[in-house]
Hints:
By secondary structure, chain A is an all-alpha fold. Chain A has helices at 2-17, 19-45, 52-57, 60-74, 76-84, 87-92, 97-115, 117-128, 138-165, 169-187, 199-207, 210-217, 224-251. Chain B contains 12 helices and 14 strands. Chain B has a 6-stranded mixed β-sheet, with helices on both faces. Chain B starts with 13 loop residues before the first helix and ends with a helix.
Amino acid sequence: MTAFITILRKELRGFFLSPVAYVVISMMMIVQGVSFLFALKPLLTGPQNMSLVQAQFTGALFWIPLFVLFPLITMRLFSEEQKMGTLEMLLTAPVRMADVVLAKFFACLIFYIILWLPTILHYLLLEWIGGIEHAFPVYALAGAFCIIVLLGMMNIAIGCLASSLSANQIVAGVLTFALIVMLFLLGHLPGSSLGGLSEIVQEFFEHINSDLHMQRFSSGMVDTRPIAYYLSATAVLLVATTFTLNARRWKN
Amino acid sequence: MRYPCATAPKPPTAATFLTPMIDVHNVTRQFYSKTVVDRISFHVDAGEVVGFLGPNGAGKSTTMRMLTGYLPPTSGGIKVAGHDILTDSIAARREIGYMPENVPLYTDMRVKEYLHFRARLKGLSGKELRIRVGAVMDRCGLTDVRRKIIRTLSRGYRQRVGLADALVHQPKLLILDEPTNGLDPNQIRQVRELIQDLSENHTVLLSTHILSEVEAVCGRVIIINEGTIKAADTPENLVNQLRRAGTVHLEIQAVPEIAEAKLREISVIKKVTLECEIEGGWKRFVIRAESGTDVRQKIVALCAANGWPLREISRLSANLEDVFVELTQRQI
Lengths: 252, 332
Ligand SMILES: Nc1ncnc2c1ncn2[C@@H]1O[C@H](COP(=O)(O)OP(=O)(O)OP(=O)(O)O)[C@@H](O)[C@H]1O
Ligand SMILES: [Mg+2]
């Protein structure tokens, strides 16, 4: 446990000391501000059939920055260790591979969650400054954040696996990007022109459709199946990361 | 570099004397189909300082990585301080201070910050941690650079950071892979003195290509070549064994061809060469005899019988370098 916390703290410090972090933080602040405005704007003209929350978290403005964000924050995690050979120092101290993987994963997750704080501020400001009571459905916002965190866990785990596969950060980043986009598009297969899929296949694709999950959760419809999906995918990916790292140090 | 330890090391218990500090049993390591370490067995007792020698690519670093649990052996067993390195890995690793070959470090951290991080990973905390980090920084001459970012340090200073890291938790066993590689002569001497200091209460296994260093600090050497152990003994014993194989230098006055022919008649002499002619009619010969023989008496007798004036006969004393070359050079 000490090893886990020690590495977690070191990684978090590393995040806030790297210039990439500030690029990412500014990018996310701008994106969130803009998408919040875009979601607000239609409401000026009159009632809409989507709530403010739903409007903000379901468009291209929500998804496309995420596709870029995850590779940026995860590509360094294990690639750099492998390139510099520093895993040899880490793993000859009394530290388990699982400690290393989990610590890096959680450090990244914490950073990711911090990136989303501006949005919460936007909603609070809307109530405080706008003086509007019940400007947005709180449960919907909580639901949306639930998916943001769960989706973040899975995608960060994808990034961990990709960066354990290559000592080259760029390769790891591109791989993460490709995997995340592919997973997103797969979820949209049933809705596309490819008709005639059997019901089971349909259901499977629906099960991994993050966009659909987000639409439901951000309208307050909380379901346990997506939660189980994200958590189990995360666990599997992290175990795979551990195995890959061990295999690569043992074989190479 | 020679400050005393801030906290006294724990006194050795009975167990430290009974179990060897390192026990390597029939260990093989393959990379794909290439065998890099081939069925080696050796042990290092508590309190020993052992030099691990071998030419480039002999398998020294690979063996050290296996000892520290970073690489599992393909077959065979390793115990460190009585703990199996695979099944009881964490306990074994607690006893080891390891400095890898190229000293990989987090180059974006500061020296002190890095050592704090490492000390905490190794289970130190609070006041003890601060005292230990301060002590190793003093001891390795890092106090002046403690706020520097590791990236900006010279190779020698990075090496010191690696050494400080290996020492910080007062491990029973130090495994140092080429600790003086890349250091200037002053720093080499400092590190050598440091190792001598440390040998009082640590067991040390170090690899190096500097043989004088081994003669200065190591009580025993293990010579490895192409993955197999060629010798494991004290430097003195190894040198003495080789000395009997010696090369003899001889200066006489004689007709070179006749002298050469007669010397060759002595059965154990393998090779006679005229090295040079010196003014005054002196001829200098270099004579190589078979291992395990001393031919000086026979040569003196031969000279006397032929009436050749003799003014020098000497046998080259071998050193560890000769042993090393003899045991590890490729036979052509
Ligand atoms: N990860 C690896 N994959 C494949 N071969 C390897 C690997 N690591 C080492 N080897 C091979 O194993 C052999 C021994 O390497 P090792 O690093 O143990 O040598 P060494 O004795 O430390 O040499 P040096 O004195 O140059 O440090 C070399 O031939 C090397 O090519
Ligand atoms: Mg080596």
